[in-house]
Task: inverse folding
């Protein structure tokens, strides 16, 4: 039996699926490379070489992440249709091809999607249309992070309504949960024989207390919880992705607390750390352990779609990387490599016709400045 996360006859970028195909094991996206070793066996009468062949399995998957989906009233009003439903498709159509390029793409859905039945609302207490989830999914998003300072804006009712909608459309979420069972269910997504495990945390909830006994409603940053969660998910996943809602708004460089948390997560075994909350971009950096193991962190992905005003608040991007798994016998090696970044910008015409565009199509000079800012620590 072969583990086949992606084949032509099933949906792209799916959870692990087990199938038989004419009794022949198939593994899409995996190279088979014979490795030859030659131990010598000899005695007084004979000397011969026995060839022992081990197969080397080499597979590669790509991962991307985007920043804050922060739906202010002017954004969802622009998305409203004549029948009272909402569509954000036109806002995302210019970047959807890039979102769909990677095997797995993560988005930070910063506003809870309680739906219009609860009454839509904007800053400072957000509640958003459910349609954004389908539109993101159609554009290429495979999992939504929902642990942030706005998770509890409209209370438990909005959280439960939003999570139920994610379940209905089959879009995995991480960082806020329906109950303890949901919270203890690992978020694992497979691509090309590589399993990615997801965790998500926030620094707080804007002073709104988490209901006693319902800590599962949102993951609050805790060193002990992070240590335990990372340890557990590493038992199931090849790659551990940790989303952190942290930092100071509108600061273009991370503070010491962010660096401390990133170093801690990396030391526990996080492979990829993606940051949110500052609403502006912060650089990418490698974190290397004494044993040579390296983790990759992007301190802030900025705003991907929002109604915030100001140049750097309108700029976000698509952070991408590649992961290669090399298996020989019982030995497995995971390599994170080839980080890259596509800057994006939110445009609008007097508060209408919102669109997310590749920045290079709007302002090539600013695009180069942003790339220099994001890569500045990768050059060291």
Result:
């Amino acid at each position: 039996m072969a583990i086949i996360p992606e084949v032509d006859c099933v949906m792209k970028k799916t959870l692990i699926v087990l199938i038989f195909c004419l009794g022949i094991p198939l593994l899409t996206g995996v190279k088979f490379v014979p490795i030859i070793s030659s131990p010598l066996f000899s005695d007084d009468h004979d000397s011969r070489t026995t060839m022992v062949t081990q197969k080397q399995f080499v597979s590669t998957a790509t991962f991307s992440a985007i920043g804050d989906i922060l739906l202010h009233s002017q954004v969802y009003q622009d998305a409203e249709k004549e029948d009272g439903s909402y569509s954000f498709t036109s806002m995302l159509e210019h970047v959807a091809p890039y979102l769909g390029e990677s095997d797995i793409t993560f988005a930070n859905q910063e506003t809870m999607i309680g739906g219009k039945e609860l009454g839509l609302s904007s800053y400072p207490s957000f509640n958003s249309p459910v349609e954004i989830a389908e539109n993101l999914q159609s554009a290429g998003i495979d999992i939504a992070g929902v642990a942030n300072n706005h998770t509890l804006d409209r209370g438990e009712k909005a959280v439960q309504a939003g999570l139920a909608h994610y379940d209905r459309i089959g879009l995995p979420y991480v960082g806020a949960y329906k109950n303890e069972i949901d919270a203890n269910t690992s978020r694992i997504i497979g691509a090309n024989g590589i399993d990615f495990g997801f965790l998500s945390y926030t620094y707080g909830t804007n002073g709104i207390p988490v209901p006693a006994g319902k800590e599962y409603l949102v993951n609050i940053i805790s060193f002990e919880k992070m240590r335990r969660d990372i340890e557990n998910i590493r038992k199931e996943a090849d790659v551990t992705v940790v989303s952190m809602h942290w930092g100071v708004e509108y600061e273009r460089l991370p503070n010491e607390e962010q660096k401390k948390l990133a170093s801690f997560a990396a030391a526990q075994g996080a492979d990829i750390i993606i940051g949110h909350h500052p609403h502006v971009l912060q650089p990418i950096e490698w974190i290397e352990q004494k044993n040579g193991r390296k983790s990759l962190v992007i301190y802030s992905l900025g705003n991907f779609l929002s109604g915030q005003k100001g140049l750097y608040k309108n700029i976000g991007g698509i952070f991408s990387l590649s992961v290669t798994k090399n298996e020989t016998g019982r030995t497995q090696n995971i390599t994170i490599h080839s980080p890259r970044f596509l800057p994006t910008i939110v445009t609008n015409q007097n508060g209408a016709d919102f669109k997310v565009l590749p920045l290079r199509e709007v302002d090539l000079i600013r695009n180069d400045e942003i790339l220099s800012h994001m890569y500045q620590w990768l050059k060291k």
Summary: Residues 56 and 155 are 51 Å apart (CA to CA). Residues 2-57 form one domain.
